[in-house]
Amino acid sequence: MTTTSGNTNPASVQLSAQAFRDVIGRFASGVTVITTCSGGRNFGTTASAVTSLTDDPPMLLICLNKSSTSAHAIRESGTFAVNVLAEDHVQLAGRFASKLPDKFEGMAFEKDGNGSPLLVGAIAHLVCSVSEQVEAGTHYVFLARVEDAVAYPGHPLAYFRGAFGRMQMAPDASVLREVRERIITTVNEVDQAIDLDRWAAELAVGVDLVHRALIALVSEGLVRREAGQFVIAPVPESIIFESYTAKLAIELGVAESTVGRVSQGQLTQLRQYMEATFEFIKDDRFTDPEAWIQANERFHEYMVELAGSKILLDTYRRLGLPGLNARTINRSTYATAELLNDHRKLVEAYENKDLGAVVEVLREHADRPRQLRARERELFGRA
Ligand SMILES: Cc1cc2nc3c(=O)[nH]c(=O)nc-3n(C[C@H](O)[C@H](O)[C@H](O)COP(=O)(O)O)c2cc1C
Is 55 helix (H, G, I), strand (E, B) or coil? Predict the structure, then answer.
């Protein structure tokens, strides 16, 4: 089946070479230089069509175009070496993909037992002897025994959709979560460089895991790279608003399962937490941002607690809303009594067992930060 043609009859689909290249280019690979020595001359070609075949006996296969001089040299010598390129070998890959008369000029290499050049700096060398050759259209497929193989430290060069790149190791999920949480809740260290060793020690994980997590967080905009260091970036608005959307999803679920089902005692407690938020907004400003964050969190968290699920509560806490708020609000932040009114209306709707009203206020309240930011910009031209 193909999606590149409008024709749905598989028997009559004609996949063009270009369409095939485009699709198969999505299959990311490493990059190698295949070398051999024949008639006293060294040959080498860049190749990505290298596949491991069996591990007992160790075998691999390579596919080389019949137009490749290296392919013909391998047919003569019956041996070759696979040099796995490192991530900084883009130029070298280009050189061995060329038709230069002597691609080895000025290159550092050693020779394996068969005389094939082993490029210094490759992250792996595999010494091979051909056991079978297969002709497949424009290509020769060489199936080979791996006589020796050595690996060196370093990261591989990658090839994807006709371009070179780096392979990025997937971050460990739990380390990523912890590092992310830490960055979101870090208030005092914005714009400062992260001390990788200290963070790794404090989180009791390897520095490389913290490093990988930080690379992943760069793409989220929570961290930026500066002069080889990771610097904590101010939280982008998009992340704040997205967190409020996630909070809303949880609160809507909680409302669905709790409105009309909570005890009088719980309602009284909810009202008390609501009233405790009242004293921290005056004259369109937070009087004490830190105390507001705590009181506000206590109120909202209590609503989630009403659902009686520890897992749900943990999920809610993971959003790190107090930390996000601490990073973004201060005494000069625009904040109106609308926030407090929302709280009051929410409790009243709970008391009236009116799910529709609770849902409406929750939606309005979740959008409030966005509304206030927009109005603040309008009124005071603040970023
Ligand atoms: C990233 C990359 C991967 C390549 N993979 C292969 C391959 O697997 N097989 C092949 O025959 N040519 C491949 N080529 C093309 C050869 O490197 C190119 O044709 C080279 O000029 C052949 O050199 P030679 O004739 O000296 O052997 C690749 C080129 C690049 C840039």
Answer: strand
For the stretch 18-51, pLDDT in tens is 999 999 999 999 999 999 999 999 999 999 999 9
Q: Ligand 1 pocket test: which of 27, 41, 46, 159 has the largest number of ligand atoms within 8 Å of its C-beta?
A: 46
Taking the domains of the chain in order of start, what are their residue ranges? Answer: 15-164, 173-232, 237-380
Q: Does pLDDT of 8 surpass 90?
A: no
Q: How many Cβ atoms are within 10 Å of 62's Cβ, its own excluded?
A: 25
240 near 327, Cβ under 8 Å?
A: no
- Pocket residues: Cβ below 6 A from ligand 1: 31, 45-49, 63-65, 68-70, 93, 97-99, 159
Q: Is the domain covering 15-164 a CATH 2.30.110.10 domain?
A: yes
Total residue count of the chain as it appears in this document: 383
At the topology level, CATH places domain 237-380 in Four Helix Bundle (Hemerythrin (Met), subunit A) (1.20.120)
* Per-residue pLDDT at 3: 37
pLDDT over threshold 90, residue 219: no
Q: Ligand 1 centre from 34 Cα, in Å?
A: 9
Atom of ligand 1 nearest to the CA of 65: 11
User: What is 173-232's CATH number?
Assistant: 1.10.10.10
Query: Which atom of ligand 1 sits closest to the CA of residue 67?
Result: 25
Testing ligand 1's pocket by substitution, the residue of 45, 70, 77, 87 carrying the most ligand atoms inside 8 A of its CB is: 45
For residue 205, give every residue at least 6 positions away whose Cβ sits within 8 Å of its Cβ, in sequence order, or none. Answer: 172, 175
| H helix or E strand, kind and range, residue 98 | none
More confident position, 309 or 221? 309
Token pair listed for 289: 């941002």
Closest listed residue to residue 47, CA positions, set 59, 65, 60: 65
Torsion of CA 239, 240, 245, 246, to 10 degrees: 70
